[in-house]
Amino acid sequence: MKRAILLSAVMSTMIVAYGQSPKDLHQPSATQLIQKGQLDAVDGFRFDQAPNAETTTPVSHGKYRSEVYDFVRVGNTYYDLQTNASIGRRAILHADGTITAAWTFSGSSSTTWPDRGSAVNYYDGTNWGAAPTVSTEDGIRTGWPSIGMLSDGSIYTVAHDPANGGMVMTQNTGKGKTDWTVTKTVAGTKIGGHPDGNVIWNRTANLGDKMFLLANFAGQTDDDDVYVGGIENPTLFTQSNDAGKSWSTLGLLPGYDSARYLDGAGDTYAIDARDSIVAIVIAGRYKDVTLFKSTDSGSTWTTSIIDSFAFPRFVWGSYLVDPNNPVTCNDGSVDVLIDNNGDVHVAGGRVSYSDDDTTDDLARSGSFFGLYHWSENQPNWKVCGLPIDMDGQPAASGAAYDITAETTNSMGADGNPSNGLAYAARYGGTSISTHSSLSVDKDNNIYVTWDAPVEFTFNDYLANYRDVHISYSTDNGASWATTQNATQIRSQEAVFACLTKRTDDFVHFIFQMDAHPGTNLQNSGTGNLHPNVENTIYYAAIPVQDLMDSVLGQNTLEITPVIKESKVFVVSQNQPNPFSDNTNVVVYLRAGSDLTCTVTDATGKVVSNQEMGYKGAGNHDITIDGSELTSGVYFYTLKTKDSEVTKKMQVVK
């Protein structure tokens, strides 16, 4: 039996920290509610008690783990708050297999982070570049980059400039180039007739040179709120038809109005664009989740509330809600994805609300365990992933998963841990499973990553570390595979994973890691509980076949090893293709084996057979010599003692 660990299903007095403008939310502690008989002593609720959400029976693959993947360090940062809620677009898998990734960077250990800006690194198909030491904005202090590629092949970043207002756009001359030029993209002042407002925390996507941008419109100080269309600090939208040179007037999307929204919040929105489709989701704690979809490149929009909160224009302390039957809503950490059929998918975490006394002005925020998914083909919210029960033992209340109160605690109004605890590790106002990121492959399989605490992994203050979790669906979200642990670090915090929107034979993502649960921005307090340390940005590539075979598993306490055959899991398409002399192929081996490469012509005749020798587990760059081949279509077969993979290539002389 596990020892009883209080899970703050209803959080203590806390600050929801939104980077530069925290808001105070006064809430009772779990202990107070237990004393009132309103909450079980351990694990106050289960994920399947959430209304408006269908549960999904996971596809069971058992609990085991055989692989811990090597991660590639692509950069670092002292500024450790990569988002307040949603992740955004910070990793691109290009058509040729190269990758561009970005994050908020600072190389300064000062807690003012004077050099904060956008860092970009590039994978050329073989290696990542050196870790960036300066931002792309040439000394302008920015944050929260979105990235994309324009029709001329150049890469752009868009990040906010909180000091001067608006967005800063940088652009290079092509993938992997470091010749960044800076453009002031969207001015933040004089919007809605308010001279002191900034557009901040952007999410940007593009269709060729047509760009789409979402941002929160906020006052420059905590006491300086701004309004557009009757909404306080709303989410605004603009688009550009000329690669960011000019932009339409920032405004409200159709259907996003004061009838249901009282206010907006930072980072509680997401965007995707594909073909002629643009999909936008605006969400937030104690708000609707609203989908805006355009099928004509942003000219017209349809608006749908896909998850309605019970109390439109929510005001703290104004509604009677039975604490034993809380109302649920999203936590703002949404992501949106357009799949191969043009259908929209949305994923995110959930929180709960209850208030049985309108005189005490209390809003009680709990965190349901699971991550949730919705799609146009599956329009009922379903659980798409759960944290992992490490030992298979129920807690005292009968629930399978419990974490410490320190993990779910937030800072009090005085900026220090509340509820009598010595530590606070909660990520703003987000739930236990949060920071979702979605991706799709050529077969229309959907993948989702998120981070969640891991049982029995503690820092010195008994806060649980987080790992990046992953799941997938092969039927448009009707069912989801059992959660697997993608990082399996245990002694480090792995958070803020960002998938590439499109997936090939690997699931590609970046994430941030350090040794302290929580962030310095949100969880340090006056006692420097979370010191301002350098965080590492890592890249991970996990073979899709490994996910499908549940090779990652769950990293539970009882580990059953998996036999590692020397199977060729992935053979990439050769690059370049067509080619005249030499072409390269990346081969991934689960375990070491002798490797051969056989080339045949269109009739099946063997024209080349090359012994590659012994290759260890992992990725290998193989060169195919085509200098003696004539123009035509050929097939190359990579073979180990256990398996083989064949693909087509073309020679042009």
Give start-end ranges of low-pLDDT stretches.
1-67, 189-193, 358-366, 559-564
Count of separate DSSP helical elements: 4
Based on secondary structure, the structural category is: mainly beta
Helix content: under 10%
**What is the CATH class of the domain at 89-246?**
Mainly Beta
β-strand percent reads 35-45%
CATH architecture of the domain at 89-246: 6 Propeller
The general outline is globular
Biggest sheet, in brief? 5 strands, antiparallel
Radius of gyration: 25 Å
Strand runs, count? 39
Write down the overall mean pLDDT: 82
CATH topology of the domain at 89-246: the name is Neuraminidase
Distance between the termini: 70 Å
3D architecture notes:
This protein has four helices and 39 strands. By secondary structure, the chain is mainly β. Among the domains are: 89-246, 6 Propeller (Neuraminidase), CATH 2.120.10.10; 568-651, Macroglobulin (MG2) domain (Immunoglobulin-like, Sandwich). Strands 20, 21, 22, 23 and 24 form a five-stranded antiparallel sheet that branches. The radius of gyration is 25 Å and the shape is globular. The chain starts with 13 loop residues before the first strand and ends with a strand. Mean pLDDT is 82; it is low at 1-67, 189-193, 358-366 and 559-564.
